[in-house]
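Exam review. A common question shows you a sequence with its structure tokens and asks you to describe the fold in words. Practice with the pair below. Do the first one on your own.
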Amino acid sequence: MIVITAPTGNIGRHLLTRLLKSAEELRVIARDPTRLPDAARGRVEVVTGSHGDAEVVDRAFEGADAVFWLVPPDASRPPEDAFTGFTRPAAKALAAHGVGHVVGVSVLGRGTPLADRAGLVTASLAMDDLLSGTGAAYRALADPSFFENLLEEAASIRDKGVFADPDRKAPLVAATDIAAVAADLLLDRSWTGTGSAPVLGPRDLSPNDLARITTEQLDRPVRYERQPLDALRADLNGLDEAFVQAMVDMKRAKDEGLDTGVTRTPEATGPTTFEHWSAHTLKPAVFA
């Protein structure tokens, strides 16, 4: 039995599609089961609710062999609460039910000088430490920023031909490639111990690279405007102050090279190019 959290999100929906092709028993935790794909109906067991709820994860993890863990973004509370606090009930349930394997979505940066002052990244790494102490074999999918982050700029690209971001050149990756690695680990389960599994894109891309490729794929001019961190802070005004600071600290750390410290190997490299992703995902979103 494999339990999937966040099964309708960017990564979870791709993971669910892959696992539906296997013979494994599947169980999902979903706030809104109506958002699950038609292929899942009658094929998966559904536990309705939040996977941050102790009663929900206790029911969901009973009899489970493996769990896919993803903490949803939450700008309403401090990052320590949003990551470690949200995960603590699950960690207790994993230990109580003797779940053997857990695959979690995490971040790059562990072991670097930037990791201790990287805001949301620092909070995510603390979550990994919590899960590593449950007794389960644990793999943290250490990811850079996603191609999918650019979908937040779809309206600006369509209306102004502009997207903004403070980040530097980095090994951006597609969510579907992260899901593929997660699926392999969840189905195999011959691995032991705790550690990380980096998932990088095929090559490092700068914001200007993204603008050039997007221009080619959309057949219209698109340019990149660097967003100062003060402007980012202003855009986030009204959200939890600690969350805003953590977001700014993460962006600063990424801009200083947080995501660039892992050597690209075939095992750690996803196949999806930004050209392919922008043609098949970004372009439809821009022209929707």
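Now try the second one, then compare your answer with the model answer below.
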Amino acid sequence: MSGPLLKVENLAKHYMLGNGFLKQNCPVVRAVEDVSFSVAPGETLCIVGESGCGKSTLARLLMRIVEPTSGRVIIDGTDITEFGPHALRVWRRRMQMVFQDPYSSLNPRLTAGQIVTEPVENFERLKRKQREALAADLLQEVGMRPEIMHRFPSELSGGQRQRLAIARALSLRPPLIVADEAVSALDVSVQAQILNLLLDLQQNTGIAFLFISHDLSVVEHIAHRVAVMYLGRIVELATCEALFANPTHPYTEALISAAPLPDPTRVRPGAPVEGEVPSPINPPSGCAFHPRCPHAIKRCRQEMPPLAPMADGRLVACHVRTGAPAI
């Protein structure tokens, strides 16, 4: 059996606040802390959680847009964490990103055809006819007419811009695309079109997706596995079916119970979690979720729970649900 396409080991990102000379007493924001997971070829792993939990920071760490404080990002068995600009440029062909905002992620001075072919031209020279043929193929692949290649982003709708961003990410034929809230800025009908497009592309090309979202209905539709983040850490990692059928971590339960249902006569079991997300500058001791958790025990306030395997294969960071003694 082949290894994972992407493997993340103990990834962390800390931001120091303040401009002190020695920075010894400056507060530290732990945006991402000790995150580990893998993505197999052709798989969709979704990262979910409340705003501010570190999802977007994690995406930028994987792309080396933001430099990690510690940990490793391994692509096809190669650790790219320590790569310099030249070596990293070559490996960027293996992983591309679709950003959240289709309005600000495209260069307004370039036409659609120039935008989708620019990544390829960073690595090889194209003649005008080659460039136009490539642009036409990419636009058709994402369901757009070839003549759109002559338009500027300001002349396109939100859905068309996001399709354009996906076409740009596909231009280098990467085995992995990181999609950061790729449909959150779009209307519901356009969201469905983009999601179906991603599923079709995955089926036809075998591409893998790391899909970041706060919309659980979107996640349930496209994910193979789901990782739930809370205050910079993964607290549960399971298959999509298992997670939605039987959420194990109390935070996962709260997230799913808070998600709206399309049928107004139905009510999800359980109660949404109360309270506010703690500050990443001064997180609680022990489990970061314990101040909001109705099941917390004394050990939750004292010890950080490890991400431990359960009988069904999922990983859960919870003293109560993994059978820890109530001390």
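Model answer, second protein: Residues 63 and 247 are 30 Å apart (CA to CA). The chain has a mean pLDDT of 88. Full marks require stating both points clearly.
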